[in-house]
Design a protein that fits this description.
By secondary structure, the protein is of the alpha+beta class. The radius of gyration is 23 Å and the shape is globular. The chain folds into two domains: 30 residues; 163 residues, Glutaredoxin, CATH 3.40.30.10. Helices cover 31% and strands 18% of the residues. The strands form three sheets. A six-stranded mixed beta sheet has the order 1-10-9-4-5-6. The chain has a two-stranded antiparallel ribbon with strand order 2-3. It is built from eight helices and ten strands.
Length: 261
């Protein structure tokens, strides 16, 4: 099937590309300026003694920093008695492991926190094959204080505090990212949180799709991210990265024998 897209000469394409490049550079500078404003936000001192359940037992918020002064938490939607974690949160978490050593080199620890008991977290983490730290805030006010968990009554009322506004939300768990700083004396501050589409900053797959002709290709879907599956549930499985040079050795031998014959 022929493309319906505009077809141009190389000269015409280059002119259009340079025009877009000017806009891209402008956006980059705007993002740099916005990042500077983000870093300049005031901080809020953490006064509560939040504790979590980790593989080694009960730990404090200060312990989550793992020797670094900066902590990034993915508020992962996995509530008590859920059979599986949220698909979209899982899509986001699929990008985490490879970032960890680079973040650590910049004095930053990143991990996930969910309200499900640790046993449920560990089982799902094992299934997904993830290595990043993931602790349980079960029985703690942490998720509620950072506005990523809500009571059944709040959800039923249509008024929950999410993304810095009162709004309806269809679940008792919500996605988000929160950032903390710990001073040398151990004082901890909340420096930033982002919710809703703001969490896309962790989704590198979207950044790549945004470069392609089809883009995210979500306009005709029932809802945004309706296409997302757990990474072990796509029909293509792990074969997506294979190419002709990665055929099994037996197939290559058979090809060679056929040529020699």
């Amino acid at each position: 099937m022929k493309t319906k897209h505009t077809i141009a000469s190389q000269t015409e394409w280059l002119a259009a590309r340079k025009a877009l490049l000017a806009e891209e550079k402008q956006l980059t500078r705007q993002m740099d300026a916005l990042s500077a404003k983000r870093r300049a936000l005031p901080w809020v001192k953490i006064d509560k003694d939040y504790t979590f359940e980790g593989p080694c037992g009960r730990i404090a918020l200060a312990d989550l920093f793992a020797g670094k002064s900066q902590l990034v938490i993915q508020h992962f939607m996995l509530g008590p008695d859920w059979e599986e974690g949220c698909k979209s949160c899982s899509y986001m978490a699929d990008h985490t492991d490879a970032m960890l050593p680079h973040l650590a080199a910049r004095d930053t620890t990143m991990l996930a926190v969910s309200r499900a008991p640790l046993a449920e977290i560990e089982a799902f983490k094992k299934r997904m094959g993830w290595r990043f730290g993931w602790v349980s805030s079960f029985g703690s006010e942490f998720n509620f204080d950072f506005h990523v968990s809500f009571t059944e009554e709040e959800v039923a009322s249509g008024q929950v505090n999410y993304n810095f506004t009162q709004r309806a939300f269809g679940s008792t768990e919500a996605p988000g990212i929160s950032v903390f700083h710990k001073d040398a004396d151990g004082t901890i501050y909340h420096t930033y949180s982002v919710y809703g589409r703001g969490v896309e900053l962790m989704m590198g797959t979207y950044r790549i799709l945004d470069l392609t002709p089809k883009g995210r290709d979500e306009d005709s879907l029932e809802f945004t991210m309706a296409w997302v599956r757990y990474h072990d549930s796509y029909a293509s499985g792990n074969d997506v990265a294979k190419c002709s040079c990665q055929q099994p050795a037996q197939e290559k031998t058979q090809e060679k024998e056929a040529v020699l014959a």
